[in-house]
Amino acid sequence: MQRRKFTSATLLVLAAGRWGTAGASPFSETDAASGVRAALERGAVAAVGLLGRTDGFLGNPKVRIPLPGFLNDAASLLRATGQQKRVDALITAMNRAAEAAVPEAKAVLVNTVKNLSVEDARHLVTGGDNSVTQFFADKTRVPLGERFLPIVTRATERVSLAAKYNAVAGKAAAFGLLRGDDANIERYVTGKALDGLYLMIGEEERKIRQDPIGTGSAILKKVFGGL
User: Are 115 and 37 in contact (CB under 8 A)?
Assistant: First the structure.
């Protein structure tokens, strides 16, 4: 028998309908919240595993960190004048810094999932395709930024070009060519590392919604499977 697959949006609608219809749901709100917690934890742990390793950022075009704004355009001119190695070294260092910082997110993300309320879970089921990304960003961006920043700083300090970047970017920001955080390589990389993390968490969570039975998890199958 061929197993039916549904898009994330379809699952959201159907799951919301089953959850909200009195007497029709084959599982309780507690079950539903447990299913969402399981999905989020799997997605978060998987995303950390994908990004927190060599080439997790540098080798993934979806999250690879470029130079910001006009500096990225200027990098093309530098390459044309024989400065390619210097530019590439800085970009590599930025992405390696993000890869080094991301493993710090695992404990914070898992703890956030464990404290998920039934109301939070209901919102995530009915909130649309970006609800997971928004949930984690709202709950964890500030504390994770505080954890990431010193790791990113230590990693970028090993590259002499980082100080030169900050000097050039600081002048560019004074002329309105860069936003505030983009003018500091450590804060820029920290922000991009968090953006990449939330993006990958959302992608992993959508995979689980599309094929909950394939996860091998009883609670995910119970809440999201068989629709």
Answer: no
Contact assessment for residue 14 and residue 220, using Cβ atoms and an 8 Å cutoff = no
Q: Which residues have C-beta within 8 Å of that of residue 138, sequence separation ≥ 6?
A: none
Helix (H) or strand (E) holding 166, with range, is helix 160-174
Among 102, 103, 124, smallest CA distance to 113 is for 124
The CA-atom distances, in angstroms, between 144 and each of 106, 178, 189 are: 10, 24, 13
Instruction: Specify the residue for token string 């949006």.
Output: 9
Please name the residues in contact with 1: beta carbons below 8 A apart, sequence gap of 6 or more. none
Say whether 217 sits in a helix, a strand or coil.
coil
What does each of the 227 residues of the chain score in pLDDT, given as a tens digit? 444 443 333 333 334 444 444 444 555 677 778 778 888 888 899 999 999 999 999 999 999 999 887 676 665 655 555 567 777 888 899 999 999 999 999 999 999 999 988 888 878 777 777 788 889 999 999 999 999 999 999 998 887 777 877 787 777 777 776 777 777 889 999 999 999 999 999 888 777 777 666 655 665 666 555 44
